[in-house]
Amino acid sequence: MASPSTRSPPRNRQPRLRFRDERIFYYVALAPTTIVIACVIALPIIYTFALGFFIQNTLVRNWRFVGLSNYSDLLTDADFWLAFWNGVVFTVGSTVVATVFGLVIAILLDCNFRGRGPLRALVIFPYIVPSIVVAFIWKFIFSGRGILNDFLGFIGAQAVSVPWLGDQRFAMMAVILISAWTWFPFAAITLLAAIQNVPDNIYEAAALDGAGPMRRFTYLTLPLLAPAIMVVVLIRAIWAFRNYDMIWLLTEGGPIGATEVLPIMAYKEAFGLFRMGHASAVSVSLMVFVTLLAAVHFRVGARLRKAYDTS
Amino acid sequence: MTTLPLPSQKQLPRRNRKKTSVLRSVVVYGGVLLLLFLVLFPFYWMVTASIKNFREISIERTIIPREVTFRNYVDLFEQTSILWHLFNTAWISCFVTVVTVILASMSAYVLTRFLTPTAEWIARISLYAYMVPSIVLIIPFYIGLRMAGLVNTHAGLILSYLSFTLPLGIWMMRACFQSIPQTMEEAAVVDGANRFEAFFLVAMPQALPGVVSTAIFVFILCWGEYLYPVVLISSDSLRTITITLDALTGGGQNIKFGLLMAASTVATVPILIIFLVLQRHLVRGFAAGGYE
Known about the structure:
The structure holds 2 protein chains of 2 kinds. By secondary structure, chain A is an all-alpha fold. Chain A contains 13 helices and 2 strands; from the N terminus they run αββαααααααααααα. Chain A is globular.
């Protein structure tokens, strides 16, 4: 069976290694990549799996096999489920915000206006800046005596001094908004490409039939964009759920665990407490969730490609 | 084909049309301004804070700096070896980018042209590998590199970077080669070229835009990478730029935002240059599936 994302015509599905130089080329080209992937991805994953069955007291030495007890510890650990739940909230929140905002921006960037080209490029910028820089800027803006509170005080005519990232009630919301800010460019540019793929004459026909902008949006744009939106949502969900650095840099999982997600829990277990066995168990369960999402992504992607013949 | 007259243009009253188009441009330009503000203000705030004095940063919080000072930059260059760290980051990122592009374009070419079962498996594994959380890999990296004596070296760091750049590179280059028709290579093979020649002389020149996009994305990812260097690098002289920034936050409650913003500005400038010079390729890279 061909991989789901292969789109070549069937005649190419046959191995085409007829000539000797093709066979040599095949091995020369694939061997280095295979070795590197085996060393830096496959072996480490296997190692982490194995580590999850052990407890180690001092670094590297002194391994003790404990079977599934790391996992049973986790399942009864309230912190683990809190971290899982926080991850779900963060994932859903930042995915929804980034996708909706990205869709609005994509529609805006599809309109005709002066300076459209430069703006389309400019939108990408938040996405390519190092995450630590983004975290610093927004920490500064969101701090107790930051510009956001000045602005809110200006609108509401009374002084506000909420340390948004340091307040248990608002920290998750702030983290969601900030990570949506760095991520909306991907949604916007991907959806813009999808919008441009929709032939104009469909809209013209709808306009002739008397459909207004709102009806054109709900009955034409949204259904036609559904596959692209689906892909954006799934990719974002995978990346949000496994995201480590943005949340860590903004709050370190605090205050009082309000933004602690599974990757941060694993990091703290591994490099704060040096409990590698526990940390591995946490990261293996994280990987299971991410793999489920990835499986849905590949499934949906393959089916959408079949139905719409777009990627 | 005959062109039919558009009834809507005849039927709609003139005034009404004008009104909607005015409303439309108000909405569009309003949205554009809002978007510009949202994208640019954080960076404006970063750059201005880096040239303000302490009073203006935390007490007066002036929108436009009244008095320009380079104190923060002077402090930054005195307290840290940020230039050296910039150099470290640059050479590591370049090295990883070159290795990734070479390996990824060769293997992606094979993965699109020779669909053997092994190749399909490698394609699937590398697509999945890109979604593996880096936190899963960092524990074995740390233990493994310690045993190999490569912890706290650039070699170890480069190896660990390949774990996320190579899958991304394969993913992007695969999309690139899929969009290139095979007919020219086949013609070259019929004319007596071997596969090496078909790859280097026929396919690669066509794939050059894709190579550039891939290289930019890989470089940007390496430049901003935080988790691997923070765990694997401990000596000051080996640090990358993200760790320089990270180290500035340490030391008590009093975060010196002026210093942090100056360091952030320094770390952003190379990305800004890449953005200004190569933005066309960046936009195309998104279409090819280049995502973080």
